[in-house]
Amino acid sequence: MSPPLRLEFVMSAPSLDHLPDTRAEVAVVGRSNVGKSSLLNALANRKSLAQTSKTPGRTRLLNLFEMADGTAVVDCPGYGYAQAPKAMQAKWQAMMERYLCEREQLEMILVLVDGAIGPTKLDVQMLDWLRSLELPHTVVATKADKVKASQRDRRQRELAEGCHLHAGDVVWVSASARTGLDKLRDLVRTWLA
Description:
CATH architecture: 3-Layer(aba) Sandwich
Structural class: alpha/beta
Low-confidence stretches: none
Mean pLDDT: 92
Number of helices: 5
CATH superfamily: P-loop containing nucleotide triphosphate hydrolases
Largest sheet: 7 strands, mixed
Shape: globular
């Protein structure tokens, strides 16, 4: 079993310029309500490290969680649905794009996709954008527990195809059922090493 990531909340930054230096970082992106905060809590094996909310779009800043070795995980604002004016959403998007493009410490971008519904148009746009800029990224399918066992193989193939990947390239996890967390923790440690 892989031990939990010992993440500690450091700060919420309104822009790249406000983030402190770290040794290396992994960013977490995904549409609103995909389960970013729940996954961070599960990876750290803590209930309220990252604030979860019933209302999508609550993450509005770059939330930095650091480990003792100076490496970090950054939770980015969700894209898509959020109860906020379009101008504010555009501001979040610009902030996130600048962080993803300009942060030198960034080693990997985790793109969270809802495993139960598959990639949305926004998820595909995000993946196309990351590929066009040749930014390192990995697709993580969340909510694996919501997929019936009888449909799992088909769903894994369809989700991978929707993301233009091979089935083995997608990491499947469930924060609530605690599945796939060991594999993802090991990957995060490898990227940050």
